[in-house]
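Notes from hallway chat w/ T.B., transcribed later so I don't forget. T.B. wanted the structure written out for a chain they're using in a teaching module, and asked if we could keep both sequence and structure tokens in one place. Agreed to drop them here.
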Amino acid sequence: MKNKLIITLIGISLSTSFVYSQRPNTKKIAIPYLQEPLNPLDNNIESYHSSVVNNSTFFQPKTVNILNIFKSSGITQPSAFQSSKQKIILNGFKEMNSLVDADIEIRFVINNVSFSSNVFKEEYKRKINDTTYVNAIGGKYRVDATVNYSEFIIDNKNDKKVISNEGIIVNNLFVSSLFSEYAPAVIAHDKNKDFNAMNLYSQIINQSLQNFQYGINNNYGFPLKYYDINFVRGRGRKYDYSDLSKAFENIGRIREIVKRAFIEGATSRYGNFTEKMRNEISKKIDECISIWGNAIKEYVPKKRRTRIGDKIIDHLYINLSVAYFLKGNWDKSYNSLSRVKISKGEIKEASKFRSKIEDYVKRININK
């Protein structure tokens, strides 16, 4: 009975500690920021015209449906592949419908495509029953596809080439699943090899276009980016965490305002912010700084039954760093991150966010 009583009391103690101890209760929010270019174009460049040109006689809409080539790449997707209507977006610059009116030309050219294919035999273990397997020979087929393409950015206003990468060659391959006999593999190969090749071309071109667009925006554009951060809300029956919930809601609201300012068709490189929007963002950032700063002051180390303890403190310092980042106070943002010292997970998160701030500040200094 005595041992049973001790076990029961231990169970009650652990349960009570769990209920009343503070818990982070975090949730990610993707915070927005405008990324400035690593290699800014000349100051007199304001507009661009882009195109994707398909010079391949084989890779055409008559032979394959390629509606999904540009899916998730950020490139305009038409009802079919029509090279004259394709667009690559350079964020922060005005898009022109006519090349004559544009300061720079961005062009992606598919020079040609080709593929080879073959059927081959492969040994495998054929199951006879639960305990018996015999050696057997089946078949597979493979398709090897190649795309040759070029990338150009021509500065017509200043009469110079920004990018001229000609004859880039990329390969991709498809290997079928195993057929139990060789003959069906031959039949499947003859029936599907063209279709498989087209899929490979689509994958290569899709990825190459994504890489090209990412690269030109990283070097020359002004894209709106998002960075995921865990924001602490707190949870527990004994303590009130409504202040942390309020700060969390503020960050979500700031994200919504910024996103709205950069909706498609925005005329300003730095977003279409009204005075009201700017004031609301500033007010909510200051409120977050106050909430998280005051919460940090409540911190009691190595104590489980407290509103702000070891489980929450690192998150609060990271969140405070985010608020200073959004405010443009880099020194205080770095200082907050330097105080993250308890949890390995949060130390790693703080290090990654510090690298992001450093990259952001470096880009700003380049563009001064």
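Follow-up for T.B.: The chain has a mean pLDDT of 87. Might be a good example for the class.
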